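Data availability (excerpt). The following record was deposited with the supplementary files.
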Amino acid sequence: MSQDDSRFIREVNEELRSDAMKALWRKYRFLIIGLAVLIVVGTAAMRGWDYWQNVTAARSGDRFLAALDLAQNGKTDEALSAFSELEKSGDGSYPVLARLRSATVTADRGDKQAAADEFLAAAKDGSIPQALRDIARIRAGYLLVDVADYNAVSAAVEVLAVPENGARHSAREILGLAAWKAGDMPRARDWFEEIEADTETPSGIRQRAGIMLDLIAGRGETS
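Predicted structure:
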């Protein structure tokens, strides 16, 4: 085939494609225009929604920081009120953070039982992410060691003291401390030994467990 023939065939193909495109445009132009408009409007709406979310979240962040300042300056009543309002009307993750911080302020005021109850209520709230629910249980557990018996502490945190849970180290420490406080040295020893046997235990918790095991051994109450 000569170059002229090749060029002729190429030009015919291009013309055919051009005619096909024109035919498609005449047949589907309104649909194509409609889809283009929908894409533009949808993109603008998404960007507007993102902007609105960012603005409202920033406002909630400012309110959260203001409430923290109140708490740090000893204005606990005002802080608790601010956290309560943020929990009701805040955006993003700030309502949950306000709820947990409110419980912390309650604990700082000295009402450990009420604070533990608040943390446990958050831990049972299925709308809160699981990681934060586990943290709430741990916070409740440490508070309950001081104000409740072993059974209450166990009900709060023993569900976390399992091998697959990332919060197990703190949960075991809480249970060991609760058993120690109750005078149940064998049970306390078992929990602290679980801490030492776990190769993933953080160093701080491991060191504290070692100290508690030394104290238990020193008392001679290991059986």
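Summary of structural features: The mean pLDDT is 83.
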